[in-house]
Amino acid sequence: xxxxxxxxxxxxxxxxxxxxxxxxxxxxxxxxxxxxxxxxxxxxxxxxxxxxxxxxxxxxxxxxxxxxxxxxxxxxxxxxxxxxxxxxxxxxxxxxxxxxxxxxxxxxxxxxxxxxxxxxxxxxxxxxxxxxxxxxxxxxxxxxxxxxxxxxxxxxxxxxxxxxxxxxxxxxxxxxxxxxxxxxxxxxxxxxxxxxxxxxxxxxxxxxxxxxxxxxxxxxxxxxxxxxxxxxxxxxxxxxxxxxxxxxxxxxxxxxxxxxxxxxxxxxxxxxxxxxxxxxxxxxxxxxxxxxxxxxxxxxxxxxxxxxxxxxxxxxxxxxxxxxxxxxxxxxxxxxxxxxxxxxxxxxxxxxxxxxxxxxxxxxxxxxxxxxxxxxxxxxxxxxxxxxxxxxxxxxxxxxxxxxxxxxxxxxxxxxxxxxxxxxxxxxxxxxxxxxxx
Length: 438
Description:
Elements: H1 5-23, E1 37-42, H2 58-69, H3 75-85, E2 87-90, E3 97-103, E4 109-116, E5 119-127, E6 135-140, H4 141-156, E7 162-165, H5 183-191, H6 201-205, E8 212-214, H7 228-233, E9 249-253, E10 256-260, H8 281-298, E11 302-306, H9 327-331, E12 338-343, E13 349-354, E14 357-362, E15 400-407, E16 413-420, E17 428-437
Parallel strand pairs: 1-7, 7-8, 10-11, 11-12, 12-14
Antiparallel strand pairs: 1-15, 2-3, 3-4, 4-5, 5-6, 9-10, 13-14, 15-16, 16-17
Helix pairs in contact: 2-3
């Protein structure tokens, strides 16, 4: 058969497409060069507590509630509170737990939790003294689900290389004989880790064998002092020196330095204190200075530091106390380095620019948002305290979100909050913060 001009043209196109298809790497993330990179950041993405939900399991559910209240109450008091003040309601048709009512942070606050198959799907608080009859929704399971889907989509689609967490990925390590049986780590694995592609060649060349890099929060060590769940879920952290006794690390990627510190477990007497012992605060500051000095020597300009408790915060539990606040150490390098700090712990979103350093409180990843409740939206702060550039003086509201960061060599870094407000007439929005940083 003799091919005509039209047929030859078609054949050439087919061959060209075939050649092009072989030229495209199998992994869409593979790229020969990068003109910068992007990553996402979220914090406090943990769900609320999971409870055994069959009516026949009520004793086990109540004991877990006692264990939870023991975080802030003596054991005998916690047991008495659960037996007297915690009310569990079961559906009479299937004998499954559908509602739980319990005290909250003060004597006049009552929390109502709606549950499905053991998971809390919504939580609200009524202050019977300050605002009787008014329930403030502080948690919706769909909020954290949306955040998880969006960050996964960002990485799978090539819009972000990796994800940073400011901590509190899980509720605790108590339930389950091992991390693979723990309902919270299983949720992190199913909703995020298993969904992500393998690292691309630039990441592997930088020694990054995973797509998620967390700072350790207080919930990661709650009833898991050996951080077995963390190390099994992120085994590649071990190559950075992370062990049960060393919870800080750093890495470099595409000309930027990433540093992760550890602010410690939770102490109700000092809820945002830097109580870390692995290593202690003073040793961490020494290591931080060493890593920042090294960045200066190497000519690294952009540095991103992640730790759990916030250096600056106007709501909820407030910031790290002055005597343990690392801001002075960090700010001393601001004239030479472009430093951005990511925090969490307080379940809201705030942004600050102080002494040349940008700070983000990213606590809107999915956990209950108690800083939106009456009496906790604004703390008393000293005169001249930095302004929050996210809420800008308004009372914080229910806001599930993550931060998208775009880094380009020699250009300003771009920060965009992607958010979901279930209560709003405009539930989805993007907000660019700070304009740009140098």
